[in-house]
Amino acid sequence: MAPSDAPALAARLFARDPRAVARAISLVENEAPEAVALMAEIYPKTGRAYLIGVTGPPGSGKSTLVDRLTSDLRRAGRTVGILAVDPTSPYTGGAILGDRVRMQGHAEDAGVFIRSMATRGHLGGLARTTAEAALILDAAGYDAIVIETVGVGQDEVDIVRTADVAIVTVVPGTGDDVQALKAGIMEIADIFVVNKADREGADRTAASIEAMLALEDWPAGAWRPPVLRTVATTGEGVAELVSAVDRFRAETQATLGERRRSRAEWRLREILERRFMQHLERDVLEPGEFERLLDRIGRRETDPYGAAAAVLARALDAGRPGAVDHVGIAATDAGEYVDLFARLFGFETGAPEDVGPHRVRFVETGDTTLELVEPRTADAAVARFLRARGPGLHHVCLRVPDIDQAMAALRANGVRFIDEAPRPGAHGSRIAFLHPTSTGGLLVELKQKGG
Fold first, then answer.
1. Measured between alpha carbons, how far is 49 from 140 in angstroms, rounded to an integer?
2. Can you tell me whether residue 339 is helix, strand or coil?
3. Non-local CB neighbours of 215 within 8 Å, separated by 6+ positions
4. 82: three-class secondary structure by DSSP
């Protein structure tokens, strides 16, 4: 799929084509570039569905409860999208995706869409792209979207940043009453559900939660989470849960916009953090540089804060056309400089790379990069430079986001180029040299990072 195909997929999505819905969720799960264009198409059509989050510890019956909850919502004539998040193996990356096994009763219902999502190592109880998947179901016109988290611990509370209402399930007989007083998952509930209420100890569990709630000073008119009891296997108490969700929606309608704005802020920050790291790894750091930086930190040659500051400074410079990418040094034998920089300054040099008639190595100083260039043939440009001037400063390289555009703009200002068109450089980059007659004798290289 190309980004230009996004409108066609969006149109199928708006028609609630299940294949289109599945395809769209796969795109966002895989963080494909086309997903960005798709989200831009569908986002204006979202915001109509109501997101119901169901979370709680492993074994609390969340999947069975979601199955029964879906049945009640369908009887009320509402369409339902289900996102069931399953844990991922930290060793193989695989997931059983077993939650849908408990929901087979809805497999043939055209008004229900069930999607299992693996966490893929993301903490917090949800997959990294659960919020985007919920937007897709919203755009497809599902009235209610039920999000079932992984069996979470006490502080894995991402669901409150994703759902409009958070249902926390607990079961009797799983721990002492002090658990009810702990911060974290118990603080995010809009509705408490004591599931498997036919077990011994259900009354005591409900009483413990009520005692915890009694410690709070609830403002007049504020929503106080009810403590409901259900037996999901039989459906007992599920109708009361649906009523509680509807009641919460009605009573908090005035603050729904504020809650969704807070969620948007958290999501925007999360996306920016992830995209910035991708930008660092793709556009700022050289291949293998991040690992070398970790090695230097491990050897106590630098500290994490100083390393982060240096990388951040380079990242900010990288966004400006004309930022210095590196300084080139002509060398008859680059190995002499490698030993010199390592012995005197502790700088590490990357592996040599052959680029045309030259061999280059990059010396990482933690700030400005040095490029050591030695000729491989007698007629190489650097060989001629060495015969005329000897070893030393050869050129300054400026980084540009689009080298074709930069060359066209410079030519319009009368600048001459040694290279008529960009040519391949190190690490998959594209480079071009300005003619020294246009730069006062200084050899200037333009470089567009590989990507």
1. 10
2. helix
3. 181
4. strand
Number of H helices, E strands in the chain: 13, 16
What pLDDT, on the 0 to 100 scale, is given for residue 146? 95
DSSP code, position 354: E
pLDDT confidence of residue 180: 47
Domain residue limits, the chain:
1-45, 46-251, 289-448
Backbone angles phi, psi at 112, to 5 degrees: -130, 135
Nearest C-alpha neighbor of 163 from the set 76, 85, 218, 58 = 85
Domain covering 289-448, topology? 2,3-Dihydroxybiphenyl 1,2-Dioxygenase; domain 1 (3.10.180)
- In angstroms, how far apart are the furthest CA atoms of the chain? 92
Residue-wise DSSP of 186-254: GGS-SEEEE-STTSTTHHHHHHHHHHHHHTS-PPTT-----EEE-BTTTTBTHHHHHHHHHHHHHHTHH
Give the whole-angstrom CA distance, residue 234 versus residue 151. 21
Place of tokens 């599931």: 195
Let me know: does 129 contact 17? Beta carbons within 8 Å. no
Q: Residue 211: which residues within 8 A CB-CB, separation 6 or more? A: 180
What pLDDT, in 10s, does the model give residues 188-207?
789 999 999 999 889 988 98
Query: Which carries the bigger pLDDT value, residue 145 or residue 310?
Result: 145
Cα-based distances in Å from 182 to 318, 336, 360, 380, 416: 46, 62, 58, 71, 70
Q: What is the CATH architecture assignment of 46-251? A: 3-Layer(aba) Sandwich (3.40)
* Contacts for 350 with CB less than 8 Å, ≥ 6 apart: 286, 288, 289, 292, 361, 362, 363, 364
Q: What is the mean pLDDT of the chain?
A: 84
* Confidence label for 43 from pLDDT (cuts 50, 70 and 90): very high
The whole-angstrom separation of Cα 216 and Cα 285 is 50
**CA-CA distance, 196 to 354, in Å (whole number)?**
67
| Phi (first) and psi of residue 418, to 5 degrees | -70, -40
Regarding pTM above 0.85, the answer is: no
23's tokens: 């395809």
CB 270 within 8 A of CB 127: no
Determine the residue type at 37.
A
Going 58 to 97 to 113 to 143, the CA torsion angle's sign is positive
Helix (H) / strand (E) element for 153: namely none
The residue with tokens 């199928």 is 12
Domains 46-251 and 289-448 share a fold: no
Residue 312 makes CB contacts below 8 A (sequence gap 6+) with none
